[in-house]
Amino acid sequence: MFGKGLLTGMRVTIGHVFGKKVTFCYPEEKLEMTERFRGGHLTMDYKKCIGCQLCAMACPNKALTLKATQDAMKKRHLTSYVHEMGRCLYCNLCVEACPTKTLAWDKNYAISSWHREDMNHQVLTDDDMKYLEKAMEDAKVAAAKKAEADAAKKAEEAAKAANDGGGAAN
Ligand code: SF4
Ligand code: SF4
User: Fold this and answer.
1) Which ligand places an atom closest to the C-alpha of 42?
2) Site to substitute for ligand 1 among 93, 107, 120, most atoms within 8 A of C-beta
3) How far apart are alpha carbons 37 and 106 in whole angstroms?
4) Which of 111, 80, 107 is nearest to 95 (CA)?
């Protein structure tokens, strides 16, 4: 029939005009990623990190550079955690290797950049650094208290030993 193709085309077009929208206004609007989506920036709950570096060791592309320090109570804390997104395979091995399950993806897929150095993401935040500062101070106080208690205990033991020795001599 003459015009059949045109009518079919118009039917499809009109169906899309009045049908459900499948497009969205990127970048003003963003798609919500699924639970298992791997991408964007690495994030961490700093308080849960034990500075073991297993994540960096598990990374096949050496995309993670960590620096750690020890507090006065010999507990390790990270001072820097750089994720080189340009090298990352998004294989998730770092997240899986973490024994405290503190790593996650922020799922922000809009991470393109003009400069390579902008792809180096510092995972630790200012709040994490404040927490570190406080943890170091608290550890100093705890270590001083522990040293005091140990010294008192030693003195007590020495006095007891001296008393026991004196008693035995009598
Ligand atoms: S996702 Fe894979 S490549 Fe990327 S930092 Fe983690 S272990 Fe390394
Ligand atoms: S594996 Fe987990 S706990 Fe260990 S340093 Fe990495 S993020 Fe921290």
Assistant:
1) 1
2) 93
3) 9
4) 107
What is the per-residue pLDDT for 77?
96
Structural domains of the chain sorted by starting position, each given as residue range(s) with its CATH number in brackets: 39-135 (3.30.70.3270)
Interval 3-45: pLDDT, tens? 889 999 999 999 988 888 888 898 899 888 999 999 999 999 9
Q: Where are the alpha helices (DSSP H) in the chain?
A: 4-18, 54-58, 93-97, 126-169
The one-letter amino acid code at 35 reads E
**Mean pLDDT value across the chain:** 92
Tell me how many helices (H) and strands (E) the chain has. Answer: 4, 5
CA of 64 from ligand 1 middle (Å) equals 7
As a whole number of angstroms, the distance between CA 142 and CA 73 comes to 7
- Residue of 68, 55, 39, 44 lying closest to 127 (CA atoms): 44
| Pocket residue to mutate for ligand 2, from 43, 46, 55, most atoms within 8 A of Cβ | 55
Instruction: Give 120's contacts (C-beta < 8 A, 6+ positions apart).
Output: 82, 83, 84, 85, 86
pLDDT tops 60 at residue 127:
yes
